[in-house]
TrEMBL record:
InterPro entries: SpoVAD, SpoVAD_sf, Thiolase-like. It comes from Hominiventricola aquisgranensis. This is Stage V sporulation protein AD. It comes from the Bacteria.
Length: 342
């Protein structure tokens, strides 16, 4: 049973379970603070392929296979796949998972795609349309730079406000509570709050934190209104890709609304890289940032019971090379997923 709660929130009487998660990252991410938590660290940035786009497709395919291996499932047991990436027309996804032959919902939510895929996957399972689905997303530093800015050969200078697109992919198998494998699962999705497009007029593509922070603030505020909860009802509130500058903006915006995050807030972009030893400036971003951090760092703590409830908010900047070159601003969006120990 799905319950409509407030303006933008859904809650589940029988929360879908996260059976298993997998994460594969590149070498730079593997040199960061979470290195010991990832399933695999690939030293070859091209993943054995000829182009950056092919590399990201291979990355996503390997991660999908890894989560199937860890969960003991086969492709035939997955009813639907909810997946996306940052590239035009979602080519990393469509070329990457083609051979799996799982019915696909291709998604684009920029760096918020992990939240979007988990949200839609949980609705599908909780609503009885499938008993077992997969959520999957990826990003790659070089393919993203080529898509949104300049090829690496351009050697452009990066301002301190910029974030580093994570080379990584995260995959999640989600099943109904009555699924035979769910008895072994200790983390569930108890609800979601779907974000809306928020535009503060930011036009700097090197300042993604400023573009996305207003959307994160809006979704957190709406979630608390819809549920009647306070931030203290969560062990952590974790955004996806704001970085250090975006975190400051988020806290300022929420403080103006009387919402004080304090030490409850963490950001995946700040967790995945070490600012003292890695030249990533404001932190990490990209679809793979939130996804790999969720799989490697957040879910294990929920599964062990160290945290009981987490509000997870991947954040996305909704720009394209066309919109940017035409002088349009960069709207943001953030989708919240309530994760609980069970």
């Amino acid at each position: 049973m799905i319950t409509i709660t407030g303006k933008a929130t859904l809650t589940y009487d029988q929360p879908p379970r996260i059976l298993e998660a997998a994460s594969i990252v590149g070498q730079k991410e593997g040199d960061g603070p979470l290195s010991h938590l990832f399933d695999c660290i690939e030293p070859d940035p091209k993943f054995g392929k000829n182009t950056w786009e092919e590399a990201e497709s291979e990355l996503q395919l390997r991660t999908a296979r890894k989560v199937l291996e860890k969960s003991g499932m086969t492709e035939e047991q997955i009813r639907y796949l909810f997946a996306g990436d940052l590239l035009a027309q979602g080519i990393a996804t469509s070329y990457g998972i083609m051979e799996l032959q799982i019915p696909l919902f291709g998604l684009y939510g920029a760096c918020s795609t992990c939240g979007e895929s988990l949200g839609l996957a949980s609705i599908t399972v909780a609503g009885g349309a499938a008993d077992c689905v997969m959520a999957l997303t990826s990003s790659h530093f070089a393919s993203a730079e080529k898509e949104f800015r300049f090829p690496l050969e351009y050697a452009g200078q990066r301002p301190l406000s910029t974030t580093w697109t994570v080379t990584g992919s995260g995959a999640f198998v989600i099943a109904a509570e009555e699924h035979p494998c769910s008895t072994q699962a200790h983390c569930c999705i108890s609800g979601i709050t779907t974000g809306k497009v928020v535009d503060y007029g930011i036009k700097d593509s090197m300042h993604m934190g400023a573009a996305m922070a207003p959307a994160a603030a809006d979704t957190i505020r709406q979630h608390l209104i819809d549920t009647g909860r306070d931030v203290s009802d969560y062990d952590r509130i974790i955004t996806g890709d704001l970085g250090s500058i975006g975190q400051t903006i988020l806290k300022d915006l929420l403080s103006d609304c009387g919402i004080l995050l304090g030490d409850l807030h963490e950001d995946c972009g700040m967790l995945i890289f070490d600012p003292d030893t890695q030249d990533t400036h404001a932190g990490g971003s990209g679809c793979g940032c939130a996804a790999t951090t969720l799989a490697a760092y957040i879910l294990p703590r929920l599964i062990r019971g160290e945290w009981k409830r987490v509000l997870f908010l991947p954040t996305g900047a909704l720009l394209s090379k066309v919109s940017f070159n035409e002088g349009q601003s960069i709207p943001g969006i953030a989708h919240a997923v309530v994760l609980e120990h069970c």
